[in-house]
Structures are given as structure tokens and as C-alpha cells.
Amino acid sequence: MTPKNSPGGLTRRELLKVLGLSGAALLAGCAPETTAGGPVTAPPIPTQALEPTSAPATRPPTSVPPTAPAQTPTPAPDLAALTQPLALDPLPPEGWKSLPVFPESVSERIRRVFEIGLAQGRAPRRFSVIGDCQSIPTYFFTEFDGAPDINYYLGEGYAHLQDTIDWFKGSFGGGLAAQGGQNVAAVFSPLWADPSACASGEGPLACELRISRASIALISLEENWNGDAEGYRVNLERIVQYTLSQAVIPVLATKANNLEGDHSINRTIVETARAYELPLWNYWASLQDLPDQGLYADRFHLTQGAPGRFDYRGEILTGWAMRNLTGLQVLDALRRALMAGLS
Asked: For the whole model, what pTM was predicted?
């Protein structure tokens, strides 16, 4: 099925308890939801299991603003204007639903960010993933760093995506900024960063963009702790502004679920993308014709199949396969548009 538009000794957790952050609640969390009968769990994926690389979803959230100077830089003069939003009227309440799954073009702002990034040494063949449990490499993208027709199967309908897999080979195995339970505030917190790789004071976002040298960042953060919609919007914009200030293209992804009940998070994601003229990955739209919209009965967890097999026992009809497919389609569209602009 083709989507539309085809200080020493303390662990981090102990330190968080000392700081009083351990009691915060989750809304739309990555851990299984519970009912009167116990947790709702999804059945196991029917392919060879990979060792999870995400942090436990029970790790407490972060709502404090970033304090590390490295995460709040003053953009270079040629980037400063590119980090400012446009003043636009919002779309009608349902208007975002009909937007294409992957970008059909890129804005002049994004072309300029890409050009500046290349001049600063960013790698055109590298992308980063900034996300929560819906983006951990256990189920997302890892197969594409393997061998075709062994680790993944594109099928005839999607064979053209092999060029994009080859182009970005080495980027699909995850990074330092995709982990279960992470939200739009946590990406700035050093408490969530990997101390073996990240500099003192860095959060996962700054650490990942510095180390990866990626030119593109897929940003998919569904968490909205404490139901603070305005806090979500403010922190999402900070993520976008920081990413742009590093000469990296932010790609914002809508989410599959509507646990908040009014699609307010997806509307915020879309309006932020519009204000900053960013590429949008409308993942939500790709799921609407799938059985149960690609979600289990808890209406949060994606249905599981073989994530990288698009022509194999109907796996394309699962939420995880469609996430992998449409993520590839987004990268394919961006690769083509950006490189054509350089020729």
C-alpha cells in the first residue's frame, strides 16, 4: 500500500531523585499503559529480536530549561535570520490531516541551511534521529544498514529507495538522541545524555548533532508530560531553533496516536513546521487506511511486523513497517531535492 503522495558515584536516576524530578507523571508515555487488569502489551515482533538500545521508559522526565551554554549558542550571522519564524495564520483545525506524507519540495530557507551546513563541514550523507520510543533502533531503520534482501526487502514497488539507503548508509543504526521516555524538554538535559560520549553540560540533542555531523535531523517526539500543551510548543520551537542554529535541517514528524483527544500535538507540530518552513513528515496521514490505523488496542503502540520488509506477508499493513517506509520516503525526497539544488 502506498501512502498519499506516494557528582561521582550517583547514577542519573539517583541524581534525579535528589533533584526532586522522579515523581513527575507521564502523559502519552512510551511504557505500556495500564488498565484494571494490568498492563496492555503488544505481541512480540515476529522477526529476529535486536538488543534494545533505548533507555528504560521509566526514567523520570525533565521539565527544567537547558542551562549549558553549548546548547544556547548565538547563531552565526548568516544563520540568525534563518532561525526566526514567520507570522502565519494557522490552518483550519482539520487542515493538517490532508497534508502530504513526505515533502514535495523544500523551501529556500532549508536550501540555505543545507548550503551553510556543507560549508561548515556537515555531512550530506548523514542524518540524525531525535526521538522517543517510536524511534529507537530496535524497530526503526536499523535494518537498512544491513544487506538488501537479507536484512530488509523493498520489493519491486519501492526498489527506487535503494539509492537513498546507499546514500545514507551508516546513519540508520541510531544515535545518541533517540531513547524511550524522552520528551521535548529532556533532549536539552545533560541528565539524559550518554556520559561516555557527550561533553559536560550537553544534552542529547546538542551531543548528537555535534558528534554525527549530520545535515538532516528527523525529529519525532510524542511525549507531552503533565499535559502541558504550551510547554510542548515552546520546547519544540527551541529544538527547531537550536537545530537550525547548527546548520542542520529539522524535519518534524506527526505522531500516530491522539491520546490527548484533540490532535493538539499534531497541530502544533504542523504549525511549527509551517512557521519555520521545514520539511514535514506527516506520518499520521500514512496510517489512516491501515487496519486500526496501525495501532494496537491501547491506541498508542504501533502494530508490529517486519519493519523493513515492504513486500513480505503483508507486513506493509503494520504501523512499524509504514513508519520505516515513510521515513525512507522522506529521506529520499530530501536527498533528491537538496542535491538537485546543488547541481
From this structure: 0.81
Q: Name the β-bridge partners of 130.
A: 219
Calpha distance 277→108 (Å, rounded): 9
Say which CATH number the domain at 304 has.
3.40.50.1110
Helix (H) / strand (E) element for 281: namely strand 280-281
Cβ–Cβ < 8 Å for 120, 209: no
pLDDT at site 305: 84
Regions of the chain short of the pLDDT cut 50: 1-4, 6-29, 31-70
133: in domain: yes
Residue 142 domain-assigned (yes or no): yes
Cβ(91)–Cβ(271) below 8 Å: yes
Residue 332 lies in a domain: yes
State whether residue 162 is helix, strand or coil.
helix
Q: Are strands 38-39 and 34-35 parallel, antiparallel or unpaired?
A: antiparallel
Q: Point out which residues pair with 267 in neighbouring strands.
A: none
> In terms of residue numbers, what domain contains 204?
95-342
Instruction: Tally the domains of the chain.
Output: 1
Query: What b/e readout covers 257-277, taking b as 16+ CB neighbours within 10 angstroms?
Result: bbbbeebbbbbbbbbbbbbbb
Task: Quote the pLDDT of residue 75.
Answer: 64
- Residue 76's pLDDT is what? 67
| Terminal C-alpha separation, the chain | 33
Conformation bin of residue 60: beta by default, left when phi > 0, alpha when psi is -120 to 50 = beta
Nine-digit cell string for 224: 507531552
Residue 80 lies in a domain: no
- The three-state DSSP-derived secondary structure of 175-225 is CCCECCCCCCCHHHCHHHCCCCCCCCCCCHHHHHHHHHCEEEEEEECCCCH
Q: Which of 282, 319, 325 is nearest to 301 (CA)?
A: 319
Beta bridge partners of 194: none
104, 333 contact by CB (below 8 A): yes
